[in-house]
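Propose amino acids for all 478 sites.
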């Protein structure tokens, strides 16, 4: 007889493992099926995020930043390093250890919470039957199924991966040597993060971006500042550049691309394709289940992640919305709680987004462009890190915090940050927006001195023209 569960989760990335753990906490008999294999061909939990995404990329970003600080800023802070050199092998080994510690941590969490981990490939056969192909094939039954199969890098016909010279983001986290000249197709979040890592380690980096506008998803003022800073770091960003062909010739990748001035040819030692990700739905379900996909190939779900099949849910990168680990985690917890009979929902209006470059870029809520398009009147409060004591002390007084508040109600509608540790600073603003705060609420809150977070406070004060540490025209009478 087939083993029966209350819940089967297909996929153990951040969305799937969160759903499984939360369901088990709530007393559901839960199994999680996942087909990820590590470099030793062993099953590993954590999906893309832990094994080939968020975590290894941040380990390399942190280490490479450490290297650049020692190399470029040590002397002026009174620290003289003699013979400073890069041991890429050790840097990669550190990254791999961070990954294996964390993936093993998820295995421990599964164990202590009583989640059954089934390595193998899951396929939905009907609304409550899942076929699992691993060492052997078995069919398990469940009252509820959650699809959390994640996403995979998009391939380009004009730059077919060969795993060595033309690679995806996963291979680009493990180059065996620093490429002398690195090409990246796509100057989006992943392209910029990977480009920053290898630039800091010494590569010449060329980014070819099809769009004319740099970082069109972020606030325009932030994008302008980012472009200035990244260019100063030596990232060669070419906009409106559409790649036509890439071929490997004598250990070099020859890239042909087109922009408004015509066709160009560039030679690079390695080429990363970072043009986005697509949902993993191939072979995920038998066609006779009738599971509905949307027009872009994502599993079609409602705001509670319910698919068109009763008791079948989908979460994370395989459904609509930003492809972010924390968005998937929140969906995982919500669905587990709803299955257990709780009232739970995700507030999609306050999903924080971060680009972990230097300076870091973070935002939540609406951009000025979106507010203008919607005809919503707003006020802006902006505060530069150049006027923040802690940022000065850190030697990193770049960027600003910008708060957008509704002109009538003063409710905070969006916060846009660029500068040091903005990935952390955005959290306070997410909390404020989640509670429906006004800019005045934030202005009346006390922030510790000297901290970077004071820039958030000052930006809130600036909305009503009363920031202390910048000259503001007085707009309101006492
Ligand atoms: P995934 O993490 O993709 O996990 C899905 C799992 O399901 C995988 O293990 C897969 O092998 C398995 N699977 C698929 N199909 C089946 C099947 N049929 N049967 C069994 N198992 C299956 N996001 C952030 O929020 N912050 C970041 O800093 C960040 N950095 C990133 C950096 C890089 C280089 C990349 C590539 C991504 C990054 N992301 C980041 C995105 C983040 O990794 C994804 O949003 C997140 O992993 C999605 O989680 P998920 O659980 O939906 O899917
Ligand atoms: P992201 O969605 O953040 O991963 O970013 C992917 C980036 O790749 C976006 O900025 C896209 O505009 C860009 N892109 C997509 N297709 C191409 C292409 N063929 N050539 C160059 N850039 C591309």
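Proposal:
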């Amino acid at each position: 007889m087939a083993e029966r569960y209350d819940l089967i989760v297909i996929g153990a990335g951040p969305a799937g493992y969160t759903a499984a753990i939360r369901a088990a906490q709530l007393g559901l008999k839960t199994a999680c099926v996942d087909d990820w294999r590590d470099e030793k061909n062993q099953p590993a939990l954590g999906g893309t995020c832990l094994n080939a995404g968020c975590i290894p990329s941040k380990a390399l970003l942190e280490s490479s930043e450490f290297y650049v600080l020692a190399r470029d800023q040590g002397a002026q802070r009174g620290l003289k390093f003699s013979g400073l050199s890069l041991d890429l092998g050790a840097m990669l080994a550190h990254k791999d250890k961070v990954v294996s510690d964390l993936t093993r941590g998820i295995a421990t969490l599964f164990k202590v919470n009583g989640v059954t981990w089934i390595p193998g490939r899951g396929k939905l056969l009907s609304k409550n039957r899942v076929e699992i192909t691993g060492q052997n094939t078995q069919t398990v039954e469940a009252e509820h199924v959650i699809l959390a199969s994640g996403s995979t890098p998009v391939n380009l016909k004009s730059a077919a991966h060969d795993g060595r010279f033309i690679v995806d983001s996963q291979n680009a986290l493990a180059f065996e040597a620093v490429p002398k000249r690195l090409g990246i197709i796509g100057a989006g979040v992943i392209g910029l993060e990977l480009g920053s890592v290898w630039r800091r380690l010494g590569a010449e980096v060329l980014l070819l971006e099809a769009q004319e506008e740099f970082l069109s998803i972020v606030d325009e003022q932030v994008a302008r500042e980012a472009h200035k800073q990244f260019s100063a770091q030596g990232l060669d960003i070419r906009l409106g550049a559409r790649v036509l062909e890439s071929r490997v010739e004598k250990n070099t990748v020859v890239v042909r691309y087109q922009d408004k001035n015509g066709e160009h040819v560039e030679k690079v030692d390695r080429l990363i394709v970072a043009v986005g990700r697509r949902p993993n739905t191939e072979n995920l379900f038998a066609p006779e289940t009738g599971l509905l996909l949307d027009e872009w190939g994502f599993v079609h779900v409602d705001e509670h992640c319910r698919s068109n099949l009763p008791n079948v849910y989908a979460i994370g990168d395989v459904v609509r919305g930003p492809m972010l680990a924390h968005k998937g985690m929140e969906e995982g917890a919500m669905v587990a709680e709803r299955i257990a009979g709780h009232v739970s929902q995700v507030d999609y209006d306050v999903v924080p987004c971060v680009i972990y470059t230097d300076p870091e870029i973070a935002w939540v809520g609406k951009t000025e462009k979106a507010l203008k398009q919607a005809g919503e009147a707003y006020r802006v409060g902006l505060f530069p890190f150049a006027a923040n004591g802690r940022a000065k002390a850190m030697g990193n007084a770049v960027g600003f915090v910008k708060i957008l508040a509704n002109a009538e109600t003063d409710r905070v509608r969006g916060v846009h940050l660029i500068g040091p540790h903005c990935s952390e600073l955005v959290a306070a603003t997410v909390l404020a927006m989640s509670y429906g705060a006004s800019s005045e609420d934030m202005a009346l809150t006390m922030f510790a001195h000297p901290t970077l977070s004071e820039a958030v406070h000052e930006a809130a004060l600036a909305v009503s023209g009363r920031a202390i540490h910048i000259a503001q025209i007085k707009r309101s009478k006492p």
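The chain has twelve helices and 22 strands. The mean pLDDT is 97.
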